[in-house]
Amino acid sequence: MLAPMNQAVLASLSILPIAVVGLLLVGLRWPASRAMPIAYLACAALALLVWEVPVATVAAASVNGIVVAATLVFIIFGAIALLNTLQESGGLHAIRAGFSDVSPDRRVQVIIIAWLFGSFIEGAAGFGTPAAVAVPLLVGLGFPAMAAVIAGMVIQSTPVSFGAAGTPILVGVATGLSNDPAVGPFVQGAGLADFGALLDLVAVKVAILHAAAGTLVPLIVVSMMTGLFGERRSFVDGLRAWKFALFAAFAMTVPYLLAAILLGPEFPSLLGGLCGLMIVVWAARHRFLTPRDDWQFADRSTWHREWSGLIDIRSEEIANRNIGAVAAWTPYLVVAILLVLTRLDTLPFKALLQGVALTVPNLFGTHITASVAPLYLPGTVFLVAVLFTYFFHSMKTADLGRALRKSGTAALQASTALAFTVPMVQVFINSGGGGTGFESMPIVLADAVADLAGEAWPLFSTFIGGLGAFVAGSNTVSNMMFSSFQFGVGQRIGFDPTWIVALQAVGGAAGNMICVHNVVAASAVVGMLGREGVVIRRTFFPFLYYASVTAVIGYCIVLLA
């Protein structure tokens, strides 16, 4: 056991890479392409000089990070390619017109696309895919790029714990708890049938916490949109849509919670998003609970320069290509269907696609394995949809080539930031087991917070989960890192550890709002690189709301239990 002073010093050093990111990216407003290389060097230096991690391990973690970054760039390319292909085919013009038919009100549109369609895509694919789908779609409809990215990031909260058919629970929490010797006796003592029943129990508690906090997410999104990007900069304009926003929230969270209770962790976001879409689109068409006025953005000529990305919708060139609404939406329907078919364990496609993997085990003689299954990546699904669009919309080859060239340029612009962001994360996570015997940096940091918090720990659990997601860029990875730790702290302070693990999972989901490489990826899709710090500053307060509300609710529950 480390001496208290040494533990405090180590905890301070552990947070240094995160502090560097915060200072440069958020404080000094550096673009991620400049800030993240310095953060990576700081993290690698700590791992080598303080934790005494072998050079081979740091190198292996860095290479694995580059592999993961390459997969993210591929996903970004696919998402942009589909948007640009639809732009060239005339599909985007039809989609834009179709949403005006549902409702011309931008507040209604952002709720339907970001909150509901985004939740469905999160349930199907996870791993930041909703931002890659919903954000460019919003821009294609005429939203400022900055507003679209912020909306896409804020909804990366409620549906995330059950993203990719429950991966953060079924893989993240399961992996984190599977080797914990205290879990088996707890399962028996609690009268649970097996480890799977424990995961189902955690999933229900996660859904309860999310349903409570998620109720206000659509209202937060529309209020931020009108307050930050409206002609009058009025948050009140967003609050005027409170009836419709709350209705849309419940249309998603009620079936979401029922799915968690009745079906397990695979289906809450999938069914919640799908049911919500059907209910809310019908309601919007019939003007049920929608605001009396139809709120719009100010004229594009008055927008601040930082609001816009590099995507230019040439509506005057595509208005007469005779693409109907159904045909225009069909490529996104293809994406949704393929994501669902390839993500469900009950179907054979997931195993088949994951089986075609490029794997390099034990990189440089370490425990780290680099692996990628290219056919399973969402980027491949996007490209299949691009090819489908080419034939289905009877496009010219030159138009498709122009779309792909523009998409390649935009994706490459994101590669510099991601090439340092993800390796930094991998070094941070794999910093344990060095010559000093210290735990990895995230565990040292969490230990220090737990020692300070004592019985008030539930109030901090969500923030530890959020910290893990902020650094790792994944709720799943955050749960892997901290679930066992959170379970142990819960037992140590005498609270139900399943509630503490649930708070971890919820906090990890909320952390996606401020996760650096998710922001980079979402910004890259709409050509808005270099303004990641601005986005994180604006999404920090929704994250603070989400983590705080769920922490207080969880704390009250464990106190009364």
Characterization of this structure:
- The chain is an all-alpha fold and 561 residues long.
- It is 72% helix and 1% strand.
- It contains 26 helices and two strands.
- It has helices at residues 4-14, 16-27, 32-49, 55-89, 91-102, 106-124, 129-140, 145-154, 163-178, 183-189, 195-214, 217-229, 235-239, 242-262, 268-285, 315-318, 325-341, 349-355, 378-392, 397-429, 441-453, 458-472, 475-492, 497-510, 516-525, 532-560, and strands at 358-360, 370-372.
- It has a two-stranded antiparallel ribbon.
- Helix 4 packs parallel to helix 7.
- The mean pLDDT is 88.
Overall geometry: globular
The low-confidence runs, each spanning 5 or more residues with pLDDT under 50, are none
Structural class: mainly alpha
Report the C-alpha radius of gyration, rounded.
Answer: 23 Å
- Strand tally is 2
- Main-sheet strand order equals 1-2
Number of helices: 26
Relative helix content? over 70%
- Rounded average pLDDT: 88
Q: Outline of this structure?
A:
With 561 residues, the chain is mostly helical. The chain has 26 helices and 2 strands. The model has no long low-confidence stretch (mean pLDDT 88).
SSE layout and pairing:
Elements: H1 4-14, H2 16-27, H3 32-49, H4 55-89, H5 91-102, H6 106-124, H7 129-140, H8 145-154, H9 163-178, H10 183-189, H11 195-214, H12 217-229, H13 235-239, H14 242-262, H15 268-285, H16 315-318, H17 325-341, H18 349-355, E1 358-360, E2 370-372, H19 378-392, H20 397-429, H21 441-453, H22 458-472, H23 475-492, H24 497-510, H25 516-525, H26 532-560
Antiparallel strand pairs: 1-2
Helix pairs in contact: 1-21, 2-3, 2-26, 3-20, 4-7, 4-19, 4-20, 4-25, 5-17, 6-7, 6-9, 6-12, 6-14, 6-15, 7-8, 7-25, 8-12, 8-25, 8-26, 9-11, 9-23, 11-14, 11-24, 11-26, 12-14, 14-15, 17-19, 20-25, 21-22, 21-23, 22-23, 22-24, 22-26, 23-24, 24-26
